[in-house]
Amino acid sequence: MSLLSVRDLTVKFSNRGQSVTALNGISFDIARGERVGVVGESGAGKSITGFAMMNLLSRPGYIDGGQVLFEGKDVLKMSAREQRSLRGNRMAMIFQDPMVTLNPVLTIGQQMVETLRAHRKLSHEEARQIATVKLKEVYIPSPEARLDQYPHELSGGMRQRIVIAMALLLDPQLIIADEPTTALDVTIQADIMELLLEMCRSNMVGLMLITHDLGVVSQVTERTLVMYAGRIIEAGKTRSIINDPQHPYTQGLINALPQQTPPGSRLKQIPGSMPSLNAMPSGCPFHPRCPLANDLCRTTMPKVVQYADVEVACHEVQRLQSDLTSEAAQ
Q1: Has the keyword Membrane been applied to this entry (predicted)?
Q2: Which residue stretches of the chain are H helix?
Q3: N or C: which end of the chain has fewer CB atoms below 10 A?
């Protein structure tokens, strides 16, 4: 049994008496200790997926259907008390900006001790000792002194390390990391990702890494989900997707990487932009930007099919698969 199974998850947002679909029936699994990347442009539905998995959506957003099964139990049907016990305890989330995550009027120690005592029967001193150990694990210098400091007294990299330490406080089985290095310098980004990878490996923690950076995904994750307009359009082993992408959108993302362009040349980009939720095109949502689009793409939503080592939703890929099948039959 998978640690986490998401089935036909649909999320909508109310908009002036109408509703728009932000996630359209997505399904995927995460095994124990597995590292899964979720990539796509802004507006693809990556962060909403993470919030929906934790059932943290607030109005006007709401879950319209589907299941989020954690160890076989549907998170969406749990009572408020059961969900509080799950969040931060067995499922933890690392948000984009540590200054938003951390309470500016409480010391680091107060926040870590409070988190521990909310889920464990510990004395204040026992909780503080565990917090000190966790800060050491993420290479925070002088951890005991840091417990008495406020978030604004620490650097951005140190704050993000503390956020990771807080996510690991209660030894969760799954961490959802939503753009965990967005606000950091490039050198610090590498340190944070290396630390997160080390923590997941040493503790056999499952990781769902939400990012737009395919370079990070290629180094950290074992499997990748590519999202576009609220759908998963390609999924498979990270190495397969990076080395041999099948969907035109995934190909465009990889071709847009700076290292794919010779020095002095203009960077490649995917023409156009992500469609807005209230103006979604008919058929395949990527067809207005796709160089391979045909009449079928403009009218019919492609189904997800297995092709090579990945699952992909693309009419052109399905046509190639059909041609190969016909050739093999002959």
Answers
A1: yes
A2: 46-53, 80-86, 98-101, 108-119, 124-137, 143-146, 156-167, 186-203, 214-220, 238-243, 248-255, 295-299, 315-329
A3: C
Question: What confidence tens digit (pLDDT) does each residue in 23-60 have?
Answer: 999 999 999 999 999 999 999 999 999 999 999 998 89
247: which residues sit within 8 A by CB, 6+ positions away?
A: 226, 233, 234, 286, 312, 313, 314, 317
Do residues 213 and 230 both lie within one domain? yes
Q: Are 37 and 58 in a shared domain?
A: yes
Instruction: Count how many domains the chain has.
Output: 2
Do both 189 and 271 map to the same domain? yes
Question: Is the same domain home to 21 and 165?
Answer: no
pLDDT tens, 167-180? Answer: 888 889 999 999 88
Whether the CB-CB separation of 223 and 34 falls below 8 Å is answered with: yes
Distance between CA atoms of 321 and 308, rounded to whole angstroms?
9
Q: Which domain holds residue 128?
A: 104-169
> Same domain for 182 and 270?
yes
pTM comes to 0.91
What angle, rounded to 10 degrees, do the helices at 156-167 and 186-203 form? 20
Does some domain include residue 305?
A: no
Q: Which residues have C-beta within 8 Å of that of residue 171, sequence separation ≥ 6? A: 203
Domain membership of residue 74 (yes or no) is yes
CB atoms within 10 A of CB 232: 25
- Among the listed residues 205, 211, 151, the one whose alpha carbon sits nearest the alpha carbon of residue 177: 211
